[in-house]
TrEMBL record:
GO cellular component terms, A-Z: plasma membrane
Transmembrane segments annotated in the record for this chain: 20-38, 58-81, 102-135, 155-175, 196-217, 229-256, 283-308, 536-564, 598-615, 635-656
Keyword Cell membrane: yes
Protein name: FtsX-like permease family protein
Family membership noted in the UniProt record: Belongs to the ABC-4 integral membrane protein family.
Keyword Ribosomal protein in record: no
ABC3 transporter permease C-terminal domain ranges (all copies): 61-174
UniProt superkingdom: Bacteria
Sorted UniProt keywords: Cell membrane, Membrane, Transmembrane, Transmembrane helix, Transport
Amino acid sequence: MFGLCFRLALTNLKKNRRLYYPYAIMTIVSTAISYIFASLAFHPDLGQVKGANGVTQVLGFGMIVVMLAVAIMVFYANSFVMKQRSKEFGVYSILGLEKKHLLLMTFLENVVYSTSTILTGLLLGLALDKLFYALLLKTMQMPVVLTSVFQLKNVAIVLAYLYGIFILVSLVNIGKLGLTDSLKLVQGKKRGDKKTGFLWLQTLLALILLGAGYVIAQLVTSPIQAIPSFFGATLLVILGTYLLFQAGVISLLNWLKRRQTYYYKPDNFISVSNLIFRMRKNALGLATITILSTMFLVTMVGGLNIYIGGKDYIANQNPNDYSIDVVMEPTTSKTQVEEWADTILEEAGIPVESKVVYPYQQAYFSEVTHQQVRFLTDEKAASIDFSDLGIGFILDQASYEKMTGQKLELAADQVAIYSKGVQFQAGQTLTFDEKEMEVAQVLSKNVTLGHLPDYVTFNVSQYLILVVQDLMIFENQAENHYYMGFESSLSEEEQVIGQEVFLSGTFESELWTSNILPDGTNTVSLAYRAYATRNFFSFAGSLFFIGLLLSLTFLMAVVLVIYFKQISEGYEDRDRFIIMTKVGLDEDQTRQSIRKQLLMVFFLPIFLAIVHLGFAYKMLSAILVSIGVVNMELMLHVTIGICVVYFLLYLMVFAITTRTYKQIVS
């Protein structure tokens, strides 16, 4: 009997290939992606790459997310396949195949299917391992090395996890078939879903949940608030989306049904009635497509913006190849500071082509209004929540002219000002603590960008750039800095190689013990652009790489759900359209009915996913700003581009699956 069951299992897999092909492709690709994540997370060479600290942990997290997604997709696909084959199992049972033999047959099907797809996926993962390691290094802006390290434990992890999933799938199948009688198996695919009660109450709850999630996203005022708010808003929107499709869409269909002028037309009658009949299944499928589409869009928008916007972030923090920022007393000799800086660069073996110097002040504010600015001491600023602080840079008019090439003629009681978070007008009086000053000019942009290191202003809701006649005006309220920026003839790779000398803790500690620092020097900050670039892109590149693979997984899940949904609707609609044709519905009316139903069913999820992204954009952009994406115009363009590309991909999937649907129906 085992031989007969095995032959039946092989025959069934071949006969139902239309159902199993997308399921198999999904399993193969998922296995390959899981292996690639495992291989990279435990790659022995990756830990030796400079600037790759923490990347393996991020890859390990990505591997967990992918494996969870794979488990969900396998259970979903198996559930669909088993439901579509329920009549087939019922016929086997009626024809005399005992339950134990039916269970053995389905178990053997699962063994053959899982073994063939998992092994194929592993072979694909092994073949692509070297390529994806090189791609990871490329996105991290590291030298590309085509190496592949085979580790048996990676194969064991993937095999154990995936076979564990399929063992659970087999147990679920055995349980369902064992507890279902033959008649119910025959009728299983044709049985409609039960009507849901309290539709309007559920619809109202869905709108409340969605509204609450949207409001939370819009109330975010700073990047620090955005991160904890994001997860709560996401949960509300997911629950609201499922309820909206579960009850809201059905309420809409019932409303259309009550509109006699709309409903009693052949194509509308068929489409609306058909959707209402399968209300629950359609609702869950549509909601799943919406959530997966939103996840794809958010993941791609976040990953690509971080990667592309990284150059602006690095340029803002590191305007020069090498920089030395000294916090000093007002009486400290600037000439001595410059001579000292030239000396330490020479000792570090760094050839200098050009140099810029800017004296400036950094200040903290407890209050910034359109009439009053109150300064904070460093000690008080340290005890206040970062999001409640106002931060400012103060320049003299000589530094402003050097930065912009424009002259300012300011009196001692005048100030030129650029502001974020509060508006000022030229000619007004502005009080700084007890000092009244006239706003001589309102600046149109932050003139310090590209000239002074900016580590914090993109993370706060209020900041000021003040230009005054002389820095002595605020020397008691603000921290005095002297910035020196150097351009070097060394290549970026040569700078990276030399990073240990310039940034080593030993080198910096020697500065304080060697007595070469000028008197009145409080702190010294050493930085250079090549090191910051390598560090940032090791993080951003790995994040972008993981985002690509996760997006591929989400996209694959969307395609799988759409394809299975089209097939299930095709099989269920075929018999109904045959009946309608017999009672007088012509082919054109049939085609119009199909088109209207498909348009309504499959374009609502993509529309709602883009709406979700639109409401989440403010919160998402705040999170991206906290990571370092500071070019808001570029962020918007990237987001729109991703939405357009995804919509085109969605159209392509829709066109392919619609053709399959029409083939089944006709």
